[in-house]
Fold this protein.
Amino acid sequence: MDKPKPNCGVIGIWGIPEASTMAYLGLYALQHRGQEAAGIVSTDGKRLYRHARTGLVADVFRRRDILERLPGDMAMGHNRYSTTGGSSADNVQPLLVQDRTGPIALSHNGNLVDYWRLRRFLEEEGSLFQTSSDSELILQLVARSHGGTMSDRLMEALQMVHGAYSLVLMTKDQLIAARDPLGFRPLCIGKRDGGWVVASESCALDLLGAEYIRDVNPGEAVLMDKKGLQFLRFAKLRERRHCIFEFVYFSRPDSRVFGDNVDKTRRRLGHYLAKGHPVENVDMVISVPDSSNTAALGFSHETGIPFELALIRNHYVGRTFIEPEQRMRDFGVKIKFNPVAGVLKDKRIVVVEDSIVRGTTLKKLVSHIRNAGAIEVNVRVSSPPITSPCFYGMDFPTKDELMAAWHSVEEIREFIGADSLEYLTEEELLASVPHDNGQGYCTACFTGKYPVPIDVEDDTVKFD
Ligand code: SF4
């Protein structure tokens, strides 16, 4: 549906009975971060047990006996949407390998920017790869390390890679969570009943009844074992580069990421949008559900213009929806969103949308809203124009397909058929997100300034 696709969600459980069931529930809470595949690895201290398949969490763990075959009080899970690698079944995570010290499992959210260079190097050295996933590269580097402990080996491996990673690694007696030095992707820790939970977003902790403790810091590994919790630093403290798009669109509004509440930040996006880009004489504010709901509420609160539910989203349209024949085109948008004619008839409206990628979905939506009787459709976007793709773990179309990379705002307005179109500026976006705890942000998809060099032959790419 013409949106960047979130990549993955990870969860780790240490010291909680029926840990695989906890991981399963946590994956449900993180389903929005990846709908292509799901998996869990657990351990009872003797061996590691794995079940992982393509499909949604509910499909992959459809039968009760699957979780019964994942015993132990330590487990980890993964929801996948492929970025590097592709959607082959081989790439489904958690990955599970046999090392000279025993089995190791890994779940990874992010994208390594030097994957191909390192893979070619390792292949020349004799390494064999079973997947095309960048996560396997981390396991290969761990396997080659001669560090004394698993945490030493993991930290040595992480010093050799560049890019975005929030990951969980598990052996028969340890769980280790780690986050890249710039902190692109979120990862937080919670506690419950003397055990620990790590998760991509705090909405998973809430579901499990775990109390949020804090984020795993960028450049930090957190080791959980019988000795308790140890915080280990493997990279110097640097200016952070959290993915600002987590606040705009990816994370759930009920989550806390990068130390702040997503709902609160997303409302601020709406406030700034309303202040900087007002619309006169309109009857209502509507959102493109669900990801734009919160920013639309912020817009409504700032302006006093009533917020109405005028687009109803069908939540049962899965990734498997197949667009019918050409002569019946346009069902894709219609099946997902239906305008409420009784609300829209003869009304002047503001539609709040979180982002525009190709513009094709919004064009159809504007047309459906007009057909439902709206007499004026103004679009306000709660992020700046997306002009560059992401290399840090989000699946964007190529630069060629990004509408704003090649068209002015006026040309986009004309294309989508709106009466007016305005975007949040980069300054307004940065003013909306929290900075009170040393946070810094990656804004590369809006600015083209990439904080970690990427191996691309594109002279429009600049590095921070
Ligand atoms: S390029 Fe955009 S989506 Fe990717 S990490 Fe940076 S802000 Fe996030």
